[in-house]
Amino acid sequence: MTEMDDNAESSIYRELREVRASWEETSREIRGLLGWLSKPQPLDDAARAALDADIERSLDKSYPDRRKGVVYRDVLGEWDDARVLEFAADGVDRPDEGGATLLSAIAETERVELCGALLDRGANPDIGSHGCGDAMEDCVQAGGKAAVPMLDRMLQHSRYGIHDQHKSGMTLLHLAVAERRWDVIRYLMGRGAELSEMDIDCETVEEYAREDGGVAYVRELRDFEE
Q1: Which of 15, 22, 164, 183 has CB atoms 3.0–4.6 Å from 160's, for a disulfide?
Q2: What per-residue string of b and e applies to 6-15 under the rule 16 or more CB within 10 Å gives b?
Q3: Residue 73: pLDDT above 70?
């Protein structure tokens, strides 16, 4: 491995650690908010307005260029491909009001050609929903018949390889096995992904499978290795 490869790998793992730390901090904040919201006394108008303002400030800080008033998952049900591409022209990776990218939202649909068109216009599949994952992870989680062709296109534009850990700390095969996305599992293993690959906590894909479905699940997955 060259020094350039070492530096690139170190950069990826450093970013993974930073993302994980940010995710853990965000999770603590969310748990605190949920605990507060679960208190028996109802929120009065002033308290609810203060909470909404806190959420808006947090989003503005995390996503200063977000498109307020737009939720991509909603507009994708109304807009054709041409309108989406026109809308994306002033910033193909600009997040919506909640922090999701267009590519991340499209990853949950079956609009393969639109996915490809956005990638050709520079959409980055390495970012995704709310800063905690990427569009490829969203695609695997969503599943569906379009998952494999979308994932194949995204990987051609991504810095991640088949064996790499993503922002979640998992490889795509870990995630596909956890979600039981058989088409994606077949695709990834057909491209060389292995059950021995480890997540950020050194847990293998096979261990994920064993914990989720026991020996029978592992046996089914091993059939794809033959």
Answers
A1: 164
A2: eeeeeebeee
A3: yes
Residue type, 95: P
Find all residues with CB under 8 Å of 23, minimum gap 6, and list them: 132
CATH homologous superfamily, domain 167-226: Ankyrin repeat-containing domain (1.25.40.20)
Separation in Å, CA 192 to CA 96, 122, 215, 222, 225 = 35, 27, 22, 13, 9
How does DSSP classify residue 57? Answer: H
Beta carbons within 10 angstroms of residue 170's beta carbon: 24
Q: What is the pLDDT of residues 129-171, one digit of tens each?
A: 655 679 999 999 998 899 999 999 999 999 999 999 998 899 9
CB atoms within 10 A of CB 28: 10
CB-count burial class (<10 Å; 0-12, 13-18, 19+) for 80: exposed
DSSP conformational letter for 43? P
Q: Which residues are 198's β-sheet partners?
A: 204
Fold type of domain 64-160 = 1.25.40
Q: For 170-216, what is each residue's pLDDT tens digit?
A: 999 999 999 999 999 999 999 999 999 999 999 999 999 998 888 89
Q: Is 72 exposed, middle or buried (0-12, 13-18, 19+ CB in 10 A)?
A: buried
Pair of tokens at residue 155: 């990987």
Please tell me the number of Cα atoms within 13 Å of 194 on its side-chain side: 4
Please tell me the number of Cα atoms within 13 Å of 58 on its side-chain side: 15
48 half-sphere exposure, CB direction, 13 A CA radius: 5
Q: What would you report as the CA-atom Rg of the chain, rounded to the nearest whole angstrom?
A: 19
Asked if residue 119 lies in contact with residue 103, where contact means CB atoms within 8 angstroms, the answer is yes
